[in-house]
Design a protein that fits this description.
The protein has 390 residues and is of the alpha+beta class. The protein is built from 13 helices and 18 strands. Strands 7, 8, 9, 10, 11 and 12 form a 6-stranded antiparallel sheet that branches. A 4-stranded antiparallel sheet has the order 1-6-2-3, with helices on one face. The longest helix has 20 residues. The chain is elongated, with a radius of gyration of 25 Å. The model has no long low-confidence stretch (mean pLDDT 93). Bound molecules: guanosine-5'-diphosphate and manganese (II) ion. Guanosine-5'-diphosphate (GDP) binds next to strand 2 and strand 10.
């Protein structure tokens, strides 16, 4: 789960990480009042969307006075911000953060994330702050410093000190850098984060280290033990298909293709996407209906697939183990009738009660194409999607 910069900044503050004073606002008049309350300018007004690259896209503006802060907020609020990360459709900005602008002497990059290959939390830092880290990795990889954190020892003072040295920080700056790193690591572990990122981490006019941007992602599987964090969720920022799927307890990830997939089991669901690609098609989603899909779940899954206008064909790929194929078939028929499914359905059923399931489907009178096996199903789904698109 992602949160907004202003929410992440509040967590930083709670963990002793210095952030500029600021307030989230939803209207220009609020921006003016916020700036007035903050005191002397200049101010920075930032679009609050779950995406980086806001600066380049026009989502970060400066103001000298509270009145100007209101005008800048008026430009930002309601705009559709298109960044490298939002896709061409962009995001509508509903909130802005008004802060006292930090005076930037130097900019750094600092983050913590989980490195799956190393099986460790890693800290990544760079003297090329403000840049996108992917760009730095491509063009100047020598400017990126990485350190592995031992889960038993945690982030040690000497590791942070060494990192500070590699970044070229002064002795006084390193004295601030060490507790900053330790605080960030404590936040990362205690809140079950998957990413904590400060870009840029700024050395300001007074020589202090300040987080001028704040980004935190959380491990969804650990949210159950952080009700305070779960409350920060902003459904406006999430893929609506995924929000809907969560209601039915379905494991769904929206993709860009035109073949809707309904599969039981995550492994089979991934294999299904692969085999569709292998036959030249493109999946519209990943969807695992789970090992114990009920008729309601199947109906919910259908409604999500159908709400996706890109879907031209639906491929149902079920291996009945604990779940019986006849139950699935009844669920498919009932849902397809209720929801008046028009897209062709390619169905592959295998496993427990497969024959009974196939009979139910063939007698339903629905536009169902039976598949002999998974490859046959994928091939047919790809062909039908192509024909529907032609
Ligand atoms: P992002 O583009 O979404 O990562 O948004 P940021 O919050 O990082 O802002 C983009 C850029 O605006 C930063 O890299 C800074 O160069 C600049 N910026 C952001 N906040 C401040 C600030 O308080 N003072 C100054 N001088 N520049 C800022
Ligand atoms: Mn940034």
């Amino acid at each position: 789960m992602k949160i907004h910069e202003y929410q992440a900044a509040a967590l930083f503050k709670a963990y002793g990480v210095r952030v500029p004073e600021g307030r989230a606002v939803a209207a220009p008049a609020e921006a003016e009042a916020a700036a007035r309350a903050l005191g002397d300018g200049p101010f920075v007004i930032k679009a609050q969307v779950h995406s980086g690259g806001r600066g380049k896209a026009g989502g970060v503006k400066f103001a000298q006075t509270p009145a100007e802060a209101a005008r800048r907020a008026e430009e930002i609020l309601g705009m559709t911000l298109v960044t490298k990360q939002t896709g061409p459709q962009g995001r509508v900005v509903c909130k802005a953060l008004v802060s006292r602008a930090v005076q930037i002497a130097r900019e750094y990059y600092l983050s913590l994330t989980v490195d799956g290959a190393r099986e460790r939390v890693v800290m990544i830092a760079s003297s090329a702050g403000g840049m996108e880290i992917e760009e730095t990795a491509r063009e100047a990889p020598e400017k990126i410093c990485t350190l592995e954190i031992d889960p038993y020892l945690g982030l040690t003072g000497y590791q942070a000190r060494e990192m500070g040295g590699r970044l070229g920080l002064s002795r006084a700056e390193i004295q601030q850098f060490i507790p900053l790193c330790k605080n960030l690591y404590r936040l990362f572990v205690e809140k079950d984060c998957s990413l904590v990122e400060i870009n840029p981490l700024v050395v300001d006019g007074a020589g202090d280290l300040v987080a001028a941007d704040a980004k935190i992602n959380f491990d969804d599987n650990a949210l159950f033990r952080h009700p305070d964090i779960a409350e920060l969720r902003d459904e406006n920022e999430e893929e609506p298909r995924e929000t809907e799927a969560a209601k039915y307890d379905l494991n769904y990830i929206g993709l860009d293709g035109d073949i809707g997939c309904m599969v039981n089991g995550a492994g089979l669901a991934m294999a299904t996407m692969d085999i569709i690609q292998a036959f030249g098609g493109s999946p519209a989603n990943f969807l695992d209906v789970g090992g114990s899909a009920t008729a309601e779940k199947v109906a919910g899954a259908f409604s999500i697939l159908l709400a996706d206008r890109k879907v031209r064909c639906i491929f149902i790929n079920i291996f009945g183990g604990i779940m019986r194929c006849d139950i699935i078939a009844e669920g498919v028929v009932a849902a397809a009738r209720n929801l008046a499914v028009k897209a062709p359905l390619v169905v592959r059923l295998e496993g427990t009660n497969a024959e009974a399931g196939k009979r139910i489907l063939s007698q339903s009178g629905l536009n169902i194409v039976a598949a002999a096996d998974m490859a046959d199903g994928a091939e047919k789904a790809c062909r039908l999607a192509k024909e529907a698109g032609a």
